[in-house]
Amino acid sequence: MGFNLLAYRRQTGRQHPEAVHQDLSKLSPIFESTPIWQSEISEFVRLRHVRHVISTCLCDFIWQPFFPQNCLPNREVVSPFLEAVSNSLSVSGGRGESAWRVLTLRGIDDLGGESSGVEPVMHRVLEILQPLIVLSESAGFQKDLLKIINESITLWKVARKDEARFVVEKYPDHSDKENWQAEDIRGFENVSMPPDEKIDTPSITPLCLFPHILQTTSEGESVRVHQGSALFPTSHVWVQALSEKKEHEEELAKAVSDARWKVNARRMSSSAGPNSPVKERFS
Q: Tens of pLDDT along 128-161?
């Protein structure tokens, strides 16, 4: 299963990058640290944010122990309860948990009827990424996204009824190099990093590009099924992107300040006499 739609080069059309950035930040806080400028670094980081949005939505809406959750009554309470029962039975060992889980999932499927689970993911992804999607590419984007969602559902419907329990972890751990692969842009390994005091990375949340998936057998053994991938704030490319973003913001603030000073100076000049120093400067 691949993220082919992420190869698209998103453009901002006529909307200014600053406006796009503000819209994205309102929809999802993770975009607050995402530069929108048209540069290789900015595009690399931005597309990783898109991958993070899609992966997180798949984890939240599909790759859940008792999917589809939208057919569960009071799911905010029922779903954690079912997971607690599953965990309790797993501690006891044997195949009791898997037998109970398969029967429970069969009942959930019967309750779900024709519910596919596609709509919640599609709606949430499009809601967050809307400012980045050009109208002419929207249909293609939705088609590729739908393919990813359907493949994810097909895969999970088989995996969730396996004798062993699948656990999907979406929170990257930089110290766990065995289970999490850190992404970075090639060729930036030797680029000098900005001073620590210039960029505040500890406050930024790592991006899960694809979750770490493991399997817990009936004997209690944990087996890694898929290594997770993530973009960490300490990566060369993200630090460089934040540095570019900060420099751009400083230049923009200076330009706005200079423009305001000139406007005020002209106003003073228009109200001053013909021999005013301010008038002479703008004459």
A: 998 888 888 889 999 999 999 999 999 998 898 8
Distance CA 206, CA 192 (A): 21
Buried b (16+ CB within 10 A) or exposed e, 97-118: bbeebeeebeebeeebeeeebb
63-77, pLDDT tens digit by residue?
988 876 666 667 778
| Residue type at 81 in one-letter notation | F
Q: Model-level pTM greater than 0.90?
A: no
- Sorted by sequence, the CB contacts under 8 Å of residue 157 that are 6+ apart come out as 67
Taking the C-alpha atoms of residue 265 and residue 274, their distance in angstroms, rounded to an integer, is 14
135 vs 13: CA distance, rounded Å: 9
Q: Retrieve residue 213's tokens.
A: 């998936």
